[in-house]
TrEMBL record:
GO terms for cellular component: mitochondrial outer membrane. This is ARM10 protein. It comes from the Eukaryota. InterPro entries: ARM-like, ARM-rpt_dom, ARM-type_fold, Armcx_regulator. It comes from Cepphus grylle. It is a single-pass membrane protein. It holds the Pfam family Arm_2. Keywords: Membrane, Mitochondrion, Mitochondrion outer membrane, Transmembrane, Transmembrane helix.
């Protein structure tokens, strides 16, 4: 895992980055590896890949963070990327794998109300995707909206959103 994280930092080759991110994502399926990746500063390295200009690299980074977000301590570190992930949802091509990967991460990060406030500005986008997206996109957006709606503090933001 340490070598994969170092490889991500050392290379600019998108194909190598994608493969390293896929391997880290698969490794994150095991809870012990989630802690190891966090302790090796892997979350910030992977999070840094969200700024990459290559959509496939961003998508793989989002998938890795999604798998890593199943851990409360990891969520505490991943939450700094929520607004950037929301921007990815808004700027990604409609119904793209990149958009879906970002929505999946937001679904996990919205299971508890701790980070809902960071998603408020994206509610109009979520509602737009609900009306314009394919069934896969709609289902993922609904998961985020259901999580947000479970928080009473979000009621006025959800009801007042400009669609």
């Amino acid at each position: 895992l340490q070598k994969l994280i170092h490889l991500l930092q050392a290379t600019d080759d998108p194909l190598i980055q994608e493969q390293a991110l896929i391997t880290l994502s698969n490794s994150a399926a095991f809870s012990v590896n989630q802690d190891i990746i966090r302790n090796l500063d892997g979350l910030s390295v992977i999070g840094g890949m969200l700024s990459d200009s290559i959509p496939k690299v961003k998508e793989k980074a989002l998938n890795a963070l999604n798998n890593l977000s199943m851990n409360i301590k990891n969520q505490e570190e991943i939450q700094v990327y929520i607004m950037q992930v929301c921007r990815n949802v808004e700027s990604a091509p409609l119904n793209s794998d990149l958009q879906l990967a970002a929505l999946r991460l937001l679904t996990n990060m919205s299971v508890t109300s701790d980070y809902h406030h960071k998603m408020i500005n994206s509610i109009p986008c979520f509602l737009h995707l609900l009306s314009e997206g394919t069934e896969r996109t709609q289902i993922q957006v609904l998961k985020v909206l259901v999580n947000l709606s479970a928080n009473p503090a979000m009621t006025k933001h959800l009801l007042r959103a400009q669609v």
